Amino acid sequence: MDGDRIMxxxxxxxxxxxxxxxxxxxxxxxxxSYRRLFEAAQDGILILDFATGCVTDANPFLCKLLGxxxxxxxxxxxxxxxxxRDIVSNQAMLELxxxxxxxxxxxxxxxxxxxxxIDVEFVSNVYQAGDKKxxxxxxxxxxxxxxxxxxxxxxxxxxxxxxxxILVRDLEGKILYWNKGAERIYGWTHEEAFGQNxxxxxxxxxxxxxxxxxxxxxxxxWHGELQHLTKDRRxxxxxxxTTLIRDDQGHPKSIxxxxxxxxxxxxxxxxxxxxxxxxxxxxxxxxxxxDLNNILTPIMxxxxxxxxxxxxxxxxxxxxxxxxxxxxxADIVRQVLxxxxxxxxxxxxxxxxxxxxxxxxxxKDTFPKDIRLQFSIPDDxxxxxxxxxxxxxILLNLCLNARNAMPxxxxxxxxxxxxxxxxxxxxxxLQVKPGRYVKISVTDSGTGIAPEIxxxxxEPFFTTKPLSEGTGLGLSTVMGIVKSHDGLIDxxxxxxxxxxxxxxxxxxxxxxxxxxxxxxEVRLLRxxxxxxxxxxxxxxxxxxxxxxxxTFGYRVLxxxxxxxAVAVYARQMNEIAVVLTDMMMPVMDGSATIxxxxxxxxxxxxxxxxxxxxxxSGVTMSGAGAKHFLTKPYTAETLLKxxxxxxxxx
Length: 650
Fold this sequence. Notes:
Elements: E1 7-10, E2 15-18, H1 22-40, E3 44-49, E4 55-58, H2 60-66, H3 70-73, H4 90-100, E5 102-111, E6 117-129, E7 132-141, H5 143-161, E8 165-170, E9 175-178, H6 180-186, H7 190-193, H8 198-202, H9 206-219, E10 221-229, E11 235-246, E12 252-261, H10 263-309, H11 313-341, E13 348-350, H12 352-366, E14 371-376, E15 384-386, H13 388-404, E16 410-421, H14 423-428, E17 435-444, H15 451-454, H16 474-484, E18 488-494, E19 498-506, H17 512-516, E20 531-535, H18 539-551, E21 555-559, H19 562-572, E22 576-582, H20 590-600, E23 606-610, H21 614-624, E24 628-631, H22 636-648
Parallel strand pairs: 14-16, 20-21, 20-22, 22-23, 23-24
Antiparallel strand pairs: 1-2, 3-4, 3-7, 5-6, 6-7, 8-9, 8-12, 10-11, 11-12, 13-15, 16-17, 17-19, 18-19
Helix pairs in contact: 10-11, 10-18, 12-13, 13-16, 19-20, 20-21
């Protein structure tokens, strides 16, 4: 019989000593393997006796993690060890282990021997070891992981507070991250966007995505402007910046995109450029208007003179025709100045029926033939007090809008109606007062206006047309003119059926017919031999003005610039009763001329002339001391009436 075989494990060297049966050797080898894993584990391992709950073993990693030596741990229950004392009840843990066979704490805060705070994941399992039960506790240090998770959460919250859209996608366009800024800009939530392809979500042109994607991968980044679509398929302009992200081996992994919505910025820039162009056009228009007024002035004055010296009915008829054309030209110039400088305009009696007849000719000559025109204009239409050019502009703008709303033809109906707005109506429309109004309606059978934009159509620069086709100023100009006339504009529209604009303008208290019974006698006032100094650099204006004054009893001296005028006045100041001077001249302009003349004679009587509007030139004129002003072009009647007014002043 063989003697007892004695075997043991040399824990220090990790070897099996002695000899024994194969079974014993296998068991010892298994125990040695377990011991090596136990000692080398990078998680803490704590072995407890199930019956007593006392520590029987602990691996080096746990001792280092908690700051205790193995000797300090062995023989204590978990509840007696300071890191676990306030958290884990020995009895409670044993009860859970008996019931479930394991205990798990996913996030357990501990305090080490040297008072460091750490977070661990704590898992306990019961198993049979020979003839007794033991508890194995695996303790994993998750302090760094929790710190990283917190940092990631904080960074994510910062990204969510960004106004820009920040997203991460793979190289094919699949969305991996979508911040709150992206939700605000595009309309899709993170849940809706995650895992979706950016091409389907935001790109109307997939080739544009492929171009940007290729440049980002080849160059590492891309920056530029592009068009994207929102959830409701609204086009927006994006300033995008994409950056390539690589993995640990340097291979392309994903793409970070930071997108800024610059739609409003681009619109403002476009409107600013448009405003600059409008300002330039205004400056150009004012200059052209000045020149045209200088051309029209001698024509209009000559007509009055020729009428007085001609007895030929045929010649008179021709002169009347020339006069109508000249006045129409002057009206057009005033309209240009109204557009260019915001000229308020002269308020006179206006008969809407006559304006609409002029408009009818324009529409018939210029509108497409597939637009049918219907007019409803009663003969007893009341008159209004206003600027005929601006009222004409209201009607023309509304008709042009109606034409544009009927690209395939339709019916344009224009009607005029006398009406009285009572107190209840004006309470709902505080911008107008109760009383008599002339209502002008412009109705089209076109596409109509969508309800969501109906409240915005009168906003400056608002337009549904491309920037190259419209300025968005038409209806805002109409609104401005209507308000300046103390009127009201109302709009009703049904998409697909058409639109009606109703303009209410205050009517005059006395009708045109009543006024016709009290015609004002037009007569050209004569002078009494007074001497007038006429100063103008325009030869035609100078000649005709001089001839007109001489024809009606004045003696005339002339000068072609301010310096010459001052010299003439200095020599003959005792003879000169009035100075008639242009404001825009070379060498010495009107303001400087007036100032120099007043230095010679503070009581001098001056009439200032300008091809610009009175509001614009009047500032300089009044500062120079002139009290009277004539806007070119003026008629002989206006010139002679003003001259008589100035001379008769005390």
